Structures are given as C-alpha cells and as structure tokens.
Amino acid sequence: MLNGYFQDQWKATPKLTVNLGLRYDRSFMPQYGRPADDNQYVGDYDFSQGVYLLEKTPGSCVTLGIAPCIPGGTLPDHVEMANGPIFKSPNRNFGPRLGLAYRLFPKTALRGSFGIFYENWAGMAQTTQGITGTWPSVSLQNSVNLNMPTAAQPLPTVRAQNSVSAVIPAPTPFNQVTWFMDPKLGAPYSQQWNMGIEHQLNENTLITANYVGSGTRHLPISGAWNAAVTPGPGPIAPREPYPYITPTYYDRPWGNSSYNAFQFQLNKRYSAGFGYTIAYTWSKTIDSGCSGWYGVPDETCMIENPYDFQASRSLAEQDVPQSLSASWMYEFPIGKGKRFDLGNRVANYILGNWQFNGLTTEHSGSTYTPYLDGDIANTGNFSQCCSSSVYERPNLVGNPKLSNPTIQAWFNKAAFAAPAPFTFGNLGRDTMRSDWFKDVDLSLFREVPLTERAKLVIRLEVFNAFNTPVFYQPNADFDNPNFGTVTGIANSARDIQLGAKITF
C-alpha cells in the first residue's frame, strides 16, 4: 500500500475554524503464487463475460503428466488469458476530508464533518486467497447441494472422491466450486458524516447531541452465483446465465449499507467526589444481504435471489436501534477535610476513603432470520456458510410475536410455513430480534493510607451484579424440532472478584 495525506486548518473568522484534507490510497491487490511457485497456476471467473481467466499456463498435461497442467495442451472453450494480473488494483481511491467548528455562543459550539474512507487491506487479503488450488491445479475440491433427501430418494446417492488420486485436472474448470471473486472487485469505501451541538452547562458538565451517518459502497456480496435466474422444476442448467458453469461462490462489489443515528451524551467530569457519563444512541443500520465479516459466522448470506439484492435488503445483523449506558464514580464525603469530618482520627480512618462505582448497559437484541434447509426453489443457490443450502426463508402466515415469550417458545412458531416447491419464501431478512441486553456492574474501592506516598487500594467488583440472564437467539431452523426454542445465554453469570494493590 502507498498512502499520501494533506491537511490544512484555516481559522476563517474568530468563531469559525475549517479543516480541509485529502488522502490518497494506492493498494495493490495480492496476486496468488510466485513466478517460481507452481501455485501461481490458478484462475478466476469473470461472470460479466462467462469466462475463466488464467494469468499464466503451466503447459500441456501430455508433456508434464501431472497437475498443474492443461489437459490436451490447448485451452478449453470459454477459458482465456488475462490481460495482465487477474485482479485489478484500484487506483482512484481519493478520500476528501472536511471539518467545521463554529462557536455559536461562549459556551456553545457547532461541529460538522465529512470524509471518505477506503478499506485497503483486510477484505482484499481475505478475498484473493479464495482461489487457492483452483484449475489447472487440483488441490481443492468442493461440492454443494448433494444428498438432499426427497420422497423418491431419501438416502444418499453421492460418494466422496479421493482428490489425491486426481493427478490430472478436469477437462474444463467449469465444474469446480470454491470462493472466486470479481476480478474488478476494487476497494470498498465508506462516506461518513456528522453534525451536532455541544454546550457547557457549568465548569465540569458538558452536554452533546449529534447526528451521525454513513453510507458504505462496493462491499463484497458473497454467496452463490450462476444459480438459476428463476425458480422452477426440472434441470437447473437451462435456467442459468451460463449453463456450462456449475454455481459457485463468487464475491461481487454490489453490497451497500447505511447507518443513521442520534447520539446524546451528558458528561460530568470527576470533581468534588462525583463524576458520571450518560450516553444514549437511537440508530438504524441497513445492508443488502450479508452482515459481518463476509457474512460468517453469525449470519449466513441469506440472499434468496442473487439477481435481486433489493429483495434481501433489510436491517443488518448488527442493527441496535436503542442503546443506553451510564457510568458513575462517587466518593463518600467522609473523613478529614471532607464534608463529614467525624472529628475522630480512628473513625475517619475506618469510614473514610470509600468510593462506589457503577456501570449499567442496556441495548436492543440482535436480529436474526428463520430459514429452511434445502434448495426448495430449485435454483442451485446456496449460502456463504458451511457449504450448505441454507439460503431460503419461510413464508410468514401470521403474527410471530408473543406477548410473553419463554425459552420454550420465543416466538409464535405457527406464524411460519414452508413455501411451496419451486418458490421463494416471503419472510424478510433479519425481521426477528433476540432478547434485549441488560447488565449492571458495581464496584467498591477503599484507599488505605500507609505512608505519605504509599497507599493500599482494595477493590471489590461485581459483574452482572443482579445475575440477570440475557437469552441467546432461539433456534431459527424451521426444519429443526427445536425451532423457536432458546438453548443458551448471551452473557455471563454473576462474577465477584476481590483485589488489592499498593501504589507509591
């Protein structure tokens, strides 16, 4: 990576300060393999043209006799040589910055900012390693949508194959399944902005209110590609964009997300034995199909129709609409030189220098999606996770909410039904929400003076002080007998610890 940054600060008026900046990021896409390494003989799909791209060919299998090699010595149909590196490195990553600060009144300030930020490393490294061992090598083999039971064929029909014995690659690369990517994937970027007001109530207390937003573009959307365009009975290949290509994992730069929030904070700096912070956020996070790190492990990329991402655009898995946290520190005003001097050295020593602290956190539960097993729509689609077909959602036929949910029935299971064969379910993605989070941590500190410079600090800390359980997401597998039941908790039980340290 090569990066450059320029910034200038300009005091336009006695009340207005402007920050201007521009950043440039030049990231070079990792290319798999090295010139002296056989691992460089791999390829990647370009589904915009329906071709398989090779950066370099190893030679004929007739001559070499072992992979990597080209069967017959000539490239199969729809296999082409890339014009330079397969993965094109983005070279237009300009990120402007703008910041404004305006003193509205002596104790009131208005602030706003905008910036564009690029993801230049983690996603690129993760995505490009997906083509490990692909044709014309044979070190990776994968299959999906196998052994799906039906009434006519309830038992498995497909056996595993020994990949070690396959010393010669398949005649064409179009039956392999692995994690390919759009060769022009580029770098995701986020546009971020905020504007707000800050007011000093008194010498130690500050109140802040902000609107914070972001819009992220060119996110990798993972999951199957070249699945059938429409659901339906019969063979899948005639309904695929490229019938000669088996559906496979493919990352496309079509993902997007948005975040909008109102953020409030009241902060009193520690003074006169007391300090606190209260923070509240009201927000909404939306994305287009995959949440988290490539949609794994918490949420599979449950895109029912890869040719209609808007149908899966919904709340993100990390959407937390309500969040409240409060912390405080309070020193009891007892002891020599404090509000309540007991007039007795021993009493002041015993009852003085105590501090009570607390932290409480509450926020909305996480979103999740009920799903069904199998390729009911018969499109050849499958999810990002675990090489399974978990991509289809059930039909919503009633109200899923219960007035008094329990761990045996967290939602109304009768509100869901399996869709008819060769159709998609109508349930939206991430429309269900788990138990809300609540936690209170308390601590009691005592300072024991030893000398003029040394003191002993004793700490009693209680985490999850009221031992309140936060239930984990219920089982969301419609075909599982435990559908709708909760089998775990998302927090830890009460934990008490006692510690001591000497400071000097």
| Amount of beta strand | 35-45%
The gyration radius over C-alpha positions equals 30 Å
In DSSP terms, counting alpha (H) and pi (I) runs of 4 or more, how many helices?
3
Query: How many strands?
Result: 23
Oligomer: single chain
Shape: globular
Spans of at least 5 consecutive residues whose pLDDT stays below 50 are none
Helical amount? under 10%
Q: Indicate the mean pLDDT.
A: 88
Detailed description of the structure:
With 504 residues, the protein is mainly beta. It has a domain at 201-503. It has 3 helices and 23 strands. It has a 16-stranded mixed β-sheet that branches. β3 and β4 form a beta hairpin. The longest helix has 7 residues, at 122-128. It is globular. The two termini are 46 Å apart. The mean pLDDT is 88.
